[in-house]
Protein 1
Amino acid sequence: MSVGKDLTRGILAENPTFRLLLGMCPTLAISTSVMNGIGMGLAATFVLIGSNLIISLVRSFIPDKIRIPCYITIIAMFVTVVDLVMAGFTPALHETLGIFIPLIVVNCIILQRAESFASKKPVINSIADGLGMGLGFTLALTVLSLIRETLGTGAVLAAPDFNFAGLRIIPEEFKALIVVMAPGGFITLGLVLGFINWLTRRVGVQDL
């Protein structure tokens, strides 16, 4: 498969959230604001690219029996970098995401790409796959966060690290707080998945 297809596959056809249903725990937990979604998505993208790159480079040197511990060690290295950078430059976002940053180490999206793709493919294809999957994950988080933040708080793009309260879209008295709570996360995800499935059948494009 070409590098271009490896890049674009994760954005739509095999979107890790909307098509493969991977990484549901952080998706539901942190998609309460757009900044949270973008922050988590970019963090996961960095880890995906870095871990895919290293794993593809050393795949022929890793004994098969210890490949998973080796993958986790490599992934943990990049997660540590992300954790320290976010703590230093975006402390409010780092505090909000909390435990979900270290848990990127065992995120099934990253482990799945390491096991099924980077351990078998050349470096350039593995980088493209990591970037595509990361962008797809970021896109999904952003879409869900945009819906939940707008309906649940009435504002969007609130960024405490930059002292920005967000853009008011819906009057305060009409916000639906349940949307940014746990039940709202499941409801929003279910409705979006239903819409995507309907649209895929409607337009007749199975790889949308």
Protein 2
Amino acid sequence: MTITESIVLGMVQGLTEFLPVSSDGHLALFQAFLGINDNFLTFDIVVHGATLLAVLIFFRNNIVLLAQQTIKALYLRKLNEVPLVVWYIGLGTLPAVLFGVFIKSSLESLYTSFTAVGLGFLVTATFLLIANRVTHLYKDLNSLSWKDSLLIGIGQALAILPGVSRSGLTVSTGLFRNINRESAFTFSFLLAIPAIMGATLLDIGNISTINRSDLTLYLLGFVTAFVSGYIALTIFKRLVTQNKLSWFGYYTLILGIVTLLVFSRI
């Protein structure tokens, strides 16, 4: 891997991890475009750690408040005072865990298929374009139900498929459940924290395989992914609240068609 590739892939990961356009789909396309055939599992772990740090800092106020309320409730042994959002984050995480344990290994062949990536982009586009038309939004974080969190969690689990955007499906599902735009955005990324953290920790042992000569490349990828990820969160929040999901919907629609017509023949 070169310095340019490290920076480009770090930036792609940071931007597409949080924008509703599918990070794994874009990484697959960029690696094909750049002619990169190496296995970048360790690099993926590093940049995922960077995006995790970005989301933790971006939502630090929400996280600190929920943590304080939860710790206080547990200390007083009053489970009924643990914020419902915390319980719902746990419930919403279950589908991704189950999919990861029982289904992901059987889908490994799809991750090298540009046809699967292209179809995944089209699925993302469909969700985004339909969700953009939802107008009756009256729920906030304090009025979520267990059904809301479970369905949003299923949307997150489906993002295991290549080309399917985690943020795209979770925010869209939140809107389908009549959750207001800012709350759908916030819950989507609070739900992302255990998912990204779990995926990173599962493969953290590979970090030890990094050669000292490659530390600069990994550091550049980490910093680039963190900065671009934080910027992506800022942009996405603004566009979600301004009801502009269709921008991403048309983008992934076009990208899906191009992927099927061009890259799937590579």
Protein 3
Amino acid sequence: MKNVRPWSILVLIAMAAVLIHPTAAMQGAGQGVTLLLQALIPSLLPFMILCRLLTDSGLVQLAGRKLYGVTGRLFGAGGEMSLAIVLSIICGYPTGAKLVGSLYQDGRIPKERLTHHALLCSTASPVFVLATVGAGMLVQPSLGRIILVSHIAACLLLGLRPHRGRPLPPAPAAAGREAPPPPLGTALARAVADSCLAMLQVGGYVILFSVILAILRQSGWLHSLASLGAAMLSLEPASVEALLTTLLEMSNGCQAIASCGAPLRWQCAALAFAVSWGGLSIACQSLGLLSGAPIRPFRFLLGKLAQGILAAALCYMMLGFVELPAFAPIGQGIWGEAFTPVVSLAGIQLCALTLFLLWVWQEKRKKTKNFE
């Protein structure tokens, strides 16, 4: 019995639930596959490949030398984190975790600051917040912008340099000591292989948590917990059920919050919490991509919870200066036509990032020819 993990009991309960509710399990898995094929792969996989190419292009090392003092004093991080933070904000979950993991494997992130840096690069995609949440669910794009600003502000504020008494991380090595970037063909092959494996891992978590959520709904457990929480907190059961859904999975949780019938200001604050917290599904995806690094899961979850609470507070305060209707119209949700702006905006971002990457590669070629 000493070699048996305590969580094996949870696995047995989950297996029994799948056998008792096979229809719900199949429907949940189908929804997870649909979400993966229609939204996640088109919007995430190209960015993962290009971000990995960017880390191998030499630009990360250049940014590390140029921006060392800025990122060190603000976030207690090396200059390489500047691009990781920007690309995480542009691309969203779980690209930031993939970038932090790559930087750690390359020896550019110290072990003691790995969890802090992972939290700093843990943001939702602006495509999802603006298009799916703001335009699709709330049918008010301006509210999506407020939610996005509060979400990014909470992440950056909590990421400000911790423990100011500690010294800054060591400066990057001189350019002459660094290994030269690999050729484009080698970097491309490695980027595609690593990104496809990471995408499969992300898809597995999405399908798993979609099955869990579908079983909880069909079995009535989610409704029972929501009714109990509503009685204890004097809230509407629909609102409590939406928050419980958010704790597990972000996309379904946002849809539940947007259609729960709560006042609009509270809905937006709850949505800011949802996209900042990300749900256990996003947390497991990020921790899975960082599985080769000594990250502290409990501290990471506490950090995500703090980000969600601060984002909700900031969003609620900002909406106090905006004239709002009492309630929001029910939008199209994650499964409706909101996929169209998601894919469109993702395509624009992809084109911009591709052009930027080609420009960097061309500039490096010019410098190499001039040096020769």
Protein 4
Amino acid sequence: MQTGRFAVIGIGNFGKSIAVNLAKKGAEVMAIDIDYDKVENISEDVAYAVTLNATDRRALISQDIKSFDAVIVAIGNPFEQRLLCTALLLDFGVKRIICRAVGRNQRFILQKMGITEIISPEQEIGLSVARRLINPSLVSYLDLPDDYSVAEIIAPKHICNMEYGQIDFRDKYKLSLITIRRNTEEWNGQKRQHVLGVPDTKTLMMENDILVLFGKNKDIEKFVEINN
């Protein structure tokens, strides 16, 4: 499977995490930073690691930056460097630019430049932590447009030992149960998590099951509140 070629500019904690995980997935990754030590530290984890100033037009051109399928601008502070690097990439006609933003003002400026893929790691982590603090049953979630999400939640206690057909997810709660993740004991005594596939009406909800639900955020929250 072809996974593409990516350049990650800015190898702080955020950029390094992106670059290393892309490489683990089989992508061809070039890591770029002005700091020689950061480049050395990641050199064995990616295909290419280059020390250069990403606000230097000639330096970027020398790496054939336009040929990559996507360029991720993960430069930290100052924001001006991120802006200048992004402006150069736009000027080069890079196919796909993903840029980091901290706060609404940075996001607004990048959007006005025409950047449509913007990542705000601090904000996203803060929102995720807040959601999990408010709702301890929430394991993970994927936000979708129009206030929908796919959420993984620990099975509420009041539905445990009930069959899927008895719970009436669709009509009563306006939710779809996509699948269930369940811990099962292996022959050696260790526990391993398995996906049960598409549930049928006789599928039993068990304690510690992870339910994968699709629906409106308010309906997911209401379902957990009522059944816990």
